[in-house]
Structures are given as C-alpha cells and as structure tokens.
Amino acid sequence: MFSLSLKEIKFFKLRYILIGFILFFIAALVFIISGLANGLANDNASAMKNMNATTFYLAKDSENRLDRSHFSANDVAKIDNDHAQAFGLQMMSLKNTDTKKKVDVTLVGLNPEKFIMPNVTEGKNINTTTKNTLVADQTLQKQGVEIGDKLYEENTKTTFTVVGFTEDQTYSHTPVVFMNNKTWNAFFGGKDRASYNAIAMQNSSSKTKVDVENHVTNGKWIAKDDLVKKIPGYDAEQSSLFMMLAFLIVIAVFVLAAFFYIMTIQKVNQFGILKAIGAKNGFLIGSTMLQVLVLSIISIGLAIGFAYILQNIMPKGIPFVFDFALIFKFSVILLAVSLLGALFSSTSIVKADPLQAMGRVE
Questions:
Q1: Closest CA to 74 of 179, 190, 180, 192
Q2: Could you tell me the pTM of the whole model?
C-alpha cells in the first residue's frame, strides 16, 4: 500500500506539489496568527503571567481589575507573612534626561527582597533602602535606555536611575520598571497617601489568607488567570485572534475537502480498473489516506520550520512568540482536518464501478 502511494506521488509530482503548497500556506497562516496572538498576550501580560504568585487579593469593588483596586500603604505594611506581598502598579510617562525622549512605562512598587521580584539579567538589583533606583524590562533598553540613565517624571519632578534590566516583564504593552516600597511611597506623596493595588500570595494557604484578611479588609481572592483576563484589552485581543484561527481552520476543512474530492474524482476510472484486478475498497481508501498523511506531514513540517525562521527574522517591534506546545496542537488539528477532508472523498472510491471503468478506459 505504502509503495503504491509513493509511486503515485512520484508519478504525479506537480499535482501533489500544488496540493502540498496549499496545505503549507494554510498551516503557515495558522502558525503565524498563533504566534502573533501569543506575542500580543505576552506583551500585554507577561509581568503578571511570570509573577511568582498564584493568587491575588484585590478590593471587592475592583471588578478583578488591578487598576481599580487600592489598599492603603499603612494597612499592607502590617502584613508580616513570607508568602504574601503587596505591590503597586501605575502607568506613567518618563523622560530620558540624556535623549530627551519620553518612554511609556508601568511602575511597580514592591519589596525587592521578597518572592515576586524577577531575576535581574543585566546590571544589579535594587534593595529595600536605596531611593529612586529602578530595574527595568529589557524592552526599555531597545528604546535607547541604558544602565545609569536618568528617567525624569515631570509632575513630581522626580529623577530615577536605571541600575539593571530584567526580561519578560511587560504590562499593557509597556515595559515594567520596578522600584522599592520606599521609592514608591515617596513618589506617591508619602506612606499616609500612597496605596497598593494588590497583595500577591505565593501559594493558596488558608493560613496566609486569614493573616492577610486580618490586616487588610474589604478584599477578595482571585486566581492569576482571572487577573490576567481583566487586563485592559487582553481578552478582546485574544478573542479576536483566536476567532480568526477558528474560522481559518473551518475554511481549511472545506478547501482541503474540495481539493481531495476533485483529486479522487479524477482517479475514479483508475480505482475502477484496480478493483477489476482485485483491489479492495479498504486498500484503495487506505492508499489515498496514506498519500494525504505523507503530504500533510511534509507540508505542516515545512510550515513549522517557516514559522520558526520567521520568528528570528521578524522586526523586533512586532510581538511574535513561537510556542512549540501550541504549534504542535494546531499541527495535530490541521493533520486531522486534512485526513477528514480526504475521508469525505472516500465515498467516490466505494462507488467506483469496475465494469464502467473498463468500458471507458481502452
């Protein structure tokens, strides 16, 4: 069966190459949209996704949105638990005093010696005592900011110094810059006026929850996934892109089914002749499915390689993430869609009449 399938593919090279190209382009388009969806999701929420926390305590009336949740700095300072940590979050524009260019960032105030502070990949970390020093996401480096640069905030006339960079820490498409509690409280008018947006918990311990609720009231616990979905624009972006992917896969079903049906119809007389010399329906259907399987694996494999290369040559400003686990899932779906499309045409093989075929073929 395998030998017959390969011989036919070799004999009708052009026909199978054209079908392979169609499969390749459909698969490549699915992988590219998937990569863009991942890239946008990462650009919008990587700081929350990568945060070393599982559960968050937000104000009850915040509707699970970080920007609408506020706890006083005095209240959160009372929490003395190694598995719970408050952090503040505020979007801001800062001016680079060297280049005079403004950069949009998300300020995050926290205790840099506890569990939600990310690792520093370049430069040095901030500590709990130094004032007006920052660790920034590396995307800020791509905007021309270097270690030692001064970033100035015009309203409060505060100047910060960048001392290090971290990676994969963005929020709402802006790089996150981390500062310690001391700087955060001073920047927002002192400890009596400053507020924090949430309390992150490293695990789901009931004891830790009770400890937090004893000091900070009027809040509720939510899971990380719920928090990420409520980041402004996140759900709308992801829903739109995954809707495109769903429609693309549905379209692929019909396109591939039509192509394989036409290909099978063109071979009805050959199937009739093969039946006349003893070939069974199962053998002929199996041979056709095997051809589609080989063609699909080669085309989808090439599309995966294309998407991987595209990730490395794509301009840095375009958010694109090659997630192999997700690409593998879409590859399996596309392979199933191809086989399903080919299976639709198997009825033509069953209906092929040997006598009619013998009469038509001389």
A1: 192
A2: 0.78
